[in-house]
Amino acid sequence: MTEAGEQMMERLGRWKYVLLVAAAGLVLLLWPSGGDRPDDTAAEVTEEARLEELLSAMEGVGRAQVLLSEKGAAVVCQGADSPSVRLEITRALGCYTGLGADKIVIIKMNESWREES
Predict the structure, then answer these.
(1) Model confidence over 42-59: pLDDT tens digits?
(2) CA 46, CA 56: separation in Å to the nearest integer?
(3) Which of 15, 56, 70, 107 is the most buried (most CB within 10 A)?
(4) H or E segment at 10?
(5) Euclidean distance between the first and final Cα of the chain, in Å?
(6) How far is 48 from 31, CA to CA, in rounded Å?
(7) How many domains in the chain?
């Protein structure tokens, strides 16, 4: 090996651990993270649809529409005028989402809206 090559190897030898850590970090950044993930919006729509189906199956709720966000949840349903139904909806949403009762709003569904759709 030439003198220049030996000097280059000596310089790299001093930095080999730094270069090794940098290379490992680069590999981890480029490593695939478990395949295709649905975006957050698609996940929220799926959660909303699942909750609508669950709530509509509960006694007294009737038809339900759900809107979720990071800050809270809104439910519009036919049975919202019953305190026991409101309590059960709040419990179900709290259990599923981890939201407190103060972050869940339950509103009575407009009967004319139900007839239109």
Answers:
(1) 665 688 999 999 999 999
(2) 15
(3) 56
(4) helix 3-14
(5) 82
(6) 32
(7) 2
Backbone angles phi, psi at 43, to 5 degrees: -65, -40
The β-bridge partners of 35 are none
Buried b (16+ CB within 10 A) or exposed e, 30-54: eeeeeeeeeeeeeebeeeeeebbeb
Secondary structure class of 31 (helix, strand, coil): coil
Q: What is the mean pLDDT of the chain?
A: 82
At 7-45, the pLDDT tens digits run 777 777 777 777 777 777 777 878 776 555 555 566 656
Same domain, 49 and 24: no
Residue with tokens 């480029």: 30
| pLDDT value for 113 | 59
Same domain, yes or no, for 18 and 63?
no
